[in-house]
Amino acid sequence: MAEQPEDSLELQHSNKSSKHGSRKARSASKDEADKIKAKAVYSRRSSRAEEKDANRRQKALEKQIYRAERKAEQKRYSVSLQSEAAISHPQQLQLLIQTISAVPMAWSPEGKRNDKSVPRFLIREVEFEKKDLTRLMFSPDQENHPSKAPVKYGELIVLGYNGSLPNGDRGRRKSRFALFKRPKANGVKPSTVHIACTPQAAKAISNKDQHSISYTLSRVQTVVVEYTHDSNTDMFQIGRSTESPIDFVVTDTVPGSQSNSETQSVQSTISRFACRIICERNPPFTARIYAAGFDSSKNIFLGEKAAKWKTPDGQMDGLTTNGVLVMHPRNGFTEDSKPGVWREISVCGNVFSLRETRSAQQRGKMVENETNQLQDGSLIDLCGATLLWRTAEGLSRTPTVKHLEALRQEINAARPQCPVGFNTLAFPSMKRKDVVDEKQPWVYLNCGHVHGYHNWGNKEERDGKDRECPMCRSVGPYVPLWLGCEAGFYVDAGPPTHAFSPCGHVCSEKTTAYWSQIPLPHGTHTFHAACPFCAHQLSGEQGYIRLIFQGPLD
Question: Which residues form the Pellino FHA domain (predicted)?
């Protein structure tokens, strides 16, 4: 066999070495690639772990924010729908409407959240409440017209408050109360009469789950009159009690009181369940008043000492301890209104002349040609507080708060000046109606000249009570002027040119003239005219004065 040449062997060896080197290179590249791949996998796993950890922290943070948000929004937006009594109050109804109408804007039709500022719990509440909104707000005859506003029977306004209670209106305790048509009728009417021999038997009868009135004639005889549901009427109850049957909580009015603490220090003479108003649910929505209200047990008890009697037709009737007095103005509540005669209303709604004193057991004479039907401008006295009834129609003719604000701005725009200091005077805004301002107008009550506050004519021997007017030298009280902010007390929309004396509340001439001739009950058997804005007894020949402003010199 022939030997291969040396150069051929060298070439074969070179090829083997080259192949071995390329294998080593490929192996090294593969190892490097595996290392890179392992690093990438490890990096991805670390990234995922960090991402999960970040998501966990984010969710925990969102949970904390959500809980805080829920707690805050629950406090702010939660509206109780547990009772029909709660939804009957117009302010709560308005809050519910605003809340429910605002929430859907933050959510898409598919239910996805668009605005994180609205908490989920509120949406859940709204979803539940929205289903019952029509049932809660509207009566059956209104359900087909969702845009129709609830029927308003009228408003009760407490005399002696200038637009709100001293410390603000809260819940059922406020200076005015609107009566709206209820979602479901809650009126009652007399039904079965039971004559029980013992109080225990009477108690057993009256403990049924329905309204009743018990008349205790003696220790051995009690008459119980059961009341049944009336689907044609709505009932509203007024009294001092804060229990759930009372729709409008009324406390004693203290003339000129600046805080509720002043009114609470006085021993109340208002009954806990003073009276009830029954409104017809159908036009013309007649409102009638009755003495006494049903308590939490749906009962009215007239004890042995209460005035009570049997009527000619065999029915029972009676009067409450301090009585419920009503006065209907003649010619309605207008510029031409004149005061009517005060009468007493019985438990069954009959009309009587006044007793000798508020708590006398002997009733007055029955007035057969008068009824317990309330009309625009009727006054209701509860022996401690007097309420003004305004019908919805009457309120539509009454100046609004915006109108009164426009009149205030018109007076200020005229730039009245103080004749002594020549400084410009201005009535403060409605919101600051109880705070004396440095530009506040002051008036001399004997002459009506309007000034800014000054010390001119203040002599020590007069003890600061009377001052001498620099314009006419007449001596008399010197008081700040306040705008009357309660529009319901106005009989017209005239300019505020007159002021009550001695309080200084300013309103139109016709309004001051009307209230100055209205005798309001005071105590157990006296009457006197008073300012409707603060309940101060009026003084002077007329009880009011015409204001004389000094115009700007330029």
Answer: 146-406
Same domain, 323 and 410: no
Both 359 and 248 in one domain: the answer is yes
What does the alpha-carbon distance between residue 351 and residue 369 come to, in Å, rounded to a whole number? 9
The answer to whether 114 and 214 are in contact (CB under 8 A) is no
Q: Are residues 414 and 511 in the same domain?
A: yes
What pLDDT is stored for residue 536 in this prediction? Answer: 95
Q: How many domains does the chain have?
A: 2
Q: Is residue 536 part of a domain?
A: yes
Residue at a domain's end among 349, 364, 397: 397
Same domain membership, residue 364 and residue 280 = yes
- C-beta of residue 243 within 8 angstroms of C-beta of residue 225: no
6-77 helix and 120-131 helix, angle to the nearest 10 degrees? 50
Q: Can you name the residues that pair with 227 across neighbouring β-strands?
A: 190
Return the pLDDT at 17: 56
pLDDT for the residue numbered 438 = 83
| Beta bridge pairs of residue 520 | 528
Query: Which regions of the chain are under pLDDT 70?
Result: 1-30, 37, 39-44, 69-147, 168, 197, 199-201, 204-208, 257-266, 432-435, 456-465, 552-554
273-282 pLDDT, tens digit per residue, is 999 999 999 9
Residue 75 vs residues 69, 71, 79, 80, 247: alpha-carbon distances, Å = 10, 6, 9, 11, 23
Q: What is the pLDDT of residue 512?
A: 97
| 175/250 Cα distance (integer angstroms) | 8
**CA 299 to chain centroid:** 27
Give the separation between CA 406 and CA 395, rounded to whole angstroms.
18
- Element spanning 143, H or E: none
